[in-house]
Amino acid sequence: LKKVHYNRKRLKQARTLKSVETLSNSALTKHAINFSKAIYTNFQACTNQFYHSNDKPVLESIRYSVKRYAYKVNYSAKDPKKLKQKEESVCRIQDEGYISRDTYSNLAAIEHHLPRVWAISERRKQITQNIAELVPISIIDIQMQAQVDPIEEPDITEIDI
């Protein structure tokens, strides 16, 4: 009974928020997700006050930072055609520009808008598979032996040449 009263009293108390510097990565992620959901809900509620119902405003993305932590939240769904085209372009750039996987991996770690390395690898496998279906490659093992007659003398006999 004492524990029940203690828990009820504890629930009634205001929740104290911790500084972002003391939070773990999972707690930071949860805060960012909940904050983003709250912004989206408020955006949906406020659109009727500021825009006509036929206008249909869309929240695409937001950017914000808390101390040294920067966040970018995308609300819009990604277009698979554009994503495929972007991944194929990166594959082509890697091949033509002699960019190694490690170099691209380092670059993709810095720039959040670049496709991830695993996505590029998967796209490269699909491209290779499509080319293999379109252009069949056959390997023929031909063992050739020299057809030289050891008795025959060479036409050029000068040592200086």
UniProtKB/TrEMBL annotation:
This is 22838_t:CDS:1. It comes from Dentiscutata erythropus.
